[in-house]
Amino acid sequence: MQLFSKKKALALVATGSVFMGLSGCSAPSAQPDPTAVVRTYLDAIAEGDAATATSMDPASVASDADADAEALRTDAVLQGAVERITDVEVDADARTDGSNDDARRVTFTYELAGQRVSSSLAVRWDQEKGDWSLTESVAGRLFVQASASAIDAEVIGYSVPGATVTVSDPPRLFQWAYPAVYEVTPDVDANLLSDPDAGTQTATVSPTEDTKVDVAVTSLPTPTS
């Protein structure tokens, strides 16, 4: 029977130690696709699932002092929209957002109101979750006002299918809503309307700019106390 020399035995031990050391220091598993979270988010909005979308939105939306984040970001409102986004396409290649590889920007397009809309969302690697999280929202801000002239205007309440928005004191100028076409009925006396047939309007909410619904009146509504 052949016996190992002491020198060979030490060499084998050393080799095994190096192998174990390399195994223990192996690189962590690759991060999942950063575009997947954007796809899930946009698909939820397309399907009228505002509950899922709001659970994924960053805290910055809810903390906006100028806008209400609760009234319109609901299943009832999104499902009651005249039209929701369709034909969502997410770019398969997310680019690094800045110098941090844990921050990415994901571009996407969708169809709404006969237009092809292009935009992007920032995502960041969440070490605790072990997944990507949105750091931006696709929601846009809706603004409804009554105006008697170019300089005489005031914030007014309104309703959309699924919700009624009242004027708070002090009034919050905007309401966050997901991209869709909404039917807006202003809370204003029909006798004050400059055009009696313009009491209800459609508004297309976009993630890239505030959406204003301007209701022309002969005189401003009297605020309720």
Low-confidence stretches: 1-28
Number of strands: 15
Helix content: 10-25%
Look at the structure and give the mean pLDDT.
85
In terms of DSSP E residues, the strand content is 25-35%
Please trace the helix and strand order, writing H or E for each element: HHHHEHEEEEEEEEEEEEEE
Radius of gyration: 27 Å
Basic shape: elongated
Largest sheet: 5 strands, mixed
Number of helices: 5
Structural class: alpha+beta
Tell me the distance between the termini. Answer: 104 Å
Polypeptide structure, described:
The protein is an alpha+beta fold. Helix content is 21%, strand content 33%. The chain has helices spanning 6-24, 35-46, 50-56, 59-62, 75-79; strands spanning 67-68, 83-84, 86-90, 95-96, 103-112, 115-126, 131-134, 140-147, 153-155, 158-160, 163-165, 174-177, 180-186, 201-204, 211-216. Strands 1, 8, 9, 12 and 15 form a five-stranded mixed sheet that branches. Strands 2, 10, 11, 13 and 14 form a five-stranded antiparallel sheet that branches. Strand 8 and strand 9 (153-155) form a beta hairpin. Helix 2 runs antiparallel to helix 3. The longest helix is centred in the N-terminal third of the chain and has 19 residues, at 6-24. The chain is elongated. The N and C termini lie far apart (104 Å). Mean pLDDT is 85; it is low at 1-28.
